[in-house]
């Protein structure tokens, strides 16, 4: 009976950890409708609106390596609780920002919120792996990341309903006070609800801390004594860690840039010309494609070499971006929504290809790859500059170049033998 009770308790703890995967996927995908909303609310240029994405994703560059050191020294449960506290603080800052209608404070709130999510990603993946039978760790991680994808699918739809109701962005027009107040209230309500849910999750983790702590792996003594500088130095000493970091930088940057401009792109008169709220809801199809693609990709990876599949998907994504750039119009709008399907396997495949070839330790390489998610802060700004100077369709030339470089990475990885042959569980979901 005790074994059955413990199994049930462990299952409950795993269910709670899995909701964390859903939570950060949901919150991250809210950035897409938020970029469109703040553009209208604060009368911003494309590049100024993209600062919302940059403020969020720059946290990965700042916090990934400190999070790895924190996890090594404090273990999983304490690290998760610290992450959740930061996320709640970020939500509170967002509430303050919407009530004061200060865009700069929105950026600070997003950075704090993303800092918590970064730490959470570093801690939650190993937790999901150990909360249950060892022979089912990969199944648990796959299930958890499926819920992450579900969050990214639902987030843009609900975010568009709350943030973009009545919001229209046309050249030379500004929002009236009533629509502006409604959009700010929608953002306020969303982040208040998120803060409450995160607080409830934190309470569950706190009450289950002994059970989870007993199942969580102890940090190696060597990892506990390693600092940020030592981990970074080890990572950059490996050519493949650097190449993998560049690939993650390009992939995340392209994926985020497309997602954050998608609603504005579909809303424009030269593409679909649909209301901005409807365009924001359609962004769910972009992220939904990634969710479906992960299921299809998992089956394909059992039969096709990972480097070959990555090369194929990168080439197709590049071709679609070039189609949007050259053809545009409604056909380009619908084509752009399919890019998510081919983004689906890129993050985990780049991650594992790099881990297999890196001469640095797995911990140092993983930390550096998570750090490289900062591409989500840099490339959207470049895309915003291009779209502001030309058009949203023209700006697809930037992610096209990213995917072309990813094709080169995949081909290079296919020509180099792995130096590690063990199976790697995903270290982060994106």
Summarize the structure.
It contains 18 helices and no strands. It has 430 residues and is an all-alpha fold. The relative contact order is 0.15.
Total number of strands: 0
Shape assignment: globular
How are helices and strands ordered from N to C? HHHHHHHHHHHHHHHHHH
Residue runs with pLDDT of under 50 for 5 or more positions: 220-224
Rounded Rg: 21 Å
Oligomer: single chain
Q: In angstroms, what separates the terminal alpha carbons? A: 39 Å
* Beta-strand percent range: under 5%
- Main structural class: mainly alpha
**Main sheet attributes: strand count, strand direction, barrel closure:** none
Report the total helices.
Answer: 18
Helix content: over 70%
Average pLDDT? 86
Task: Summarize the structure in words.
This protein is mostly helical and 430 residues long. Helices cover 81% and strands 0% of the residues. The chain is built from 18 helices and no strands. Helix 10 packs antiparallel against helix 18. The chain is globular. The two termini are 39 Å apart. Mean pLDDT is 86; it is low at 220-224.
Write the layout of secondary structure elements.
Elements: H1 2-29, H2 31-41, H3 46-100, H4 103-130, H5 137-163, H6 177-207, H7 209-215, H8 221-225, H9 228-236, H10 239-267, H11 276-301, H12 306-326, H13 329-337, H14 339-343, H15 346-357, H16 362-371, H17 375-389, H18 397-415
Helix pairs in contact: 1-4, 1-5, 1-6, 2-3, 2-5, 2-6, 2-10, 3-4, 3-6, 3-16, 3-17, 4-5, 5-6, 5-11, 9-16, 10-11, 10-13, 10-15, 10-16, 10-17, 10-18, 12-13, 12-15, 12-18
Summary keywords:
18 helices, 430 residues, mainly alpha, 0% strand
């Amino acid at each position: 009976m005790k074994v059955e009770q413990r199994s049930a308790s462990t299952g409950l703890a795993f269910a709670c950890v899995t909701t964390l995967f859903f939570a950060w996927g949901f919150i991250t995908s809210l950035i897409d409708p938020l970029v469109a909303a703040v553009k209208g609310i604060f009368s911003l240029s494309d590049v100024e609106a993209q600062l919302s994405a940059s403020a969020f994703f720059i946290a990965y560059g700042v916090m990934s390596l400190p999070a790895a050191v924190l996890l090594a020294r404090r273990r999983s449960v304490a690290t998760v609780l610290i992450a959740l506290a930061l996320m709640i603080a970020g939500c509170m800052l967002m509430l303050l920002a919407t009530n004061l209608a200060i865009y700069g404070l929105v950026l600070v709130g997003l950075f704090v919120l993303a800092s918590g999510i970064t730490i959470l990603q570093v801690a939650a993946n190993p937790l999901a792996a150990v909360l249950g039978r060892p022979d089912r760790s990969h199944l648990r991680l796959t299930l958890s990341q499926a819920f992450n994808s579900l969050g990214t699918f639902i987030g843009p739809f609900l975010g568009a309903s709350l943030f973009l109701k009545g919001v229209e962005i046309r050249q030379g027009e500004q929002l009236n006070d009533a629509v502006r107040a409604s959009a700010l209230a929608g953002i306020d309500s969303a982040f208040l609800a998120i803060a409450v849910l995160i607080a409830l999750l934190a309470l569950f983790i706190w009450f289950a801390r002994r059970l989870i702590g007993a199942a969580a792996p102890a940090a190696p003594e060597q990892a506990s004594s390693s600092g940020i500088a030592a981990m970074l130095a080890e990572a950059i000493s490996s050519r493949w860690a650097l190449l993998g970091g560049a690939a993650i930088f390009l992939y995340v940057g392209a994926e985020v840039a497309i997602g954050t401009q998608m609603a504005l792109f579909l809303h424009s008169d030269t593409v679909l010309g649909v209301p901005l709220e409807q365009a924001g809801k359609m962004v769910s199809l972009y992220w939904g494609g990634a969710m479906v693609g992960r299921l299809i990709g998992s089956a394909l990876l059992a039969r096709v070499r990972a480097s070959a599949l990555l090369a194929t998907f990168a080439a197709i994504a590049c071709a679609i971006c070039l189609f949007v750039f050259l053809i545009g119009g409604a056909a380009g709008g619908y084509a752009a929504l399919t890019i998510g399907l081919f983004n689906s396997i890129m993050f985990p495949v780049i991650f594992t290809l790099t881990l297999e070839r890196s001469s640095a330790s797995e911990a140092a390489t993983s930390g550096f790859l998570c750090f490289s998610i900062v591409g989500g802060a840099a490339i959207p700004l470049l895309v915003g500059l291009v779209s502001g100077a030309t058009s949203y369709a023209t700006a697809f030339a930037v992610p096209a170049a990213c995917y072309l470089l990813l094709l080169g990475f995949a081909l290079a990885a296919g020509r180099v033998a792995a130096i590690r042959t063990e199976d790697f569980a995903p270290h982060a979901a994106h």
